[in-house]
Design goal:
With 81 residues, this protein is mostly helical. The protein is built from three helices and no strands. The chain has one domain. The longest helix has 43 residues.
Length: 81
């Protein structure tokens, strides 16, 4: 199984087209992937902001070492992105 199945499918489709059609198809496919990446990055940003807000609010009221550890894990995971 390929790690780029959508690109592989686009490549097979482009192979059946003429040179200019294949070029235009590649541009369209690249633009579509770029839009999806921008949407995914925006979603990640929103999730990180929500996670930070929850961690900050929890940090103010938590006395449990488990909660503190989870907040620490959140912050470490976010740094490793």
């Amino acid at each position: 199984m390929s790690d780029t199945p959508r690109t592989d499918k686009a490549e097979r489709t482009a192979d059946t087209l003429g040179v200019m059609d294949a070029f235009e198809f590649a541009i369209y496919h690249g633009q579509k992937l770029e839009r999806e990446l921008a949407e995914a990055n925006e979603r990640i940003k929103n999730l990180e902001e929500a996670g930070d807000a929850i961690a900050d609010a929890t940090e103010e009221i938590c006395y449990d070492s488990y909660d503190k550890k989870q907040i620490e894990n959140w912050r470490k995971a976010k740094e490793g992105k």
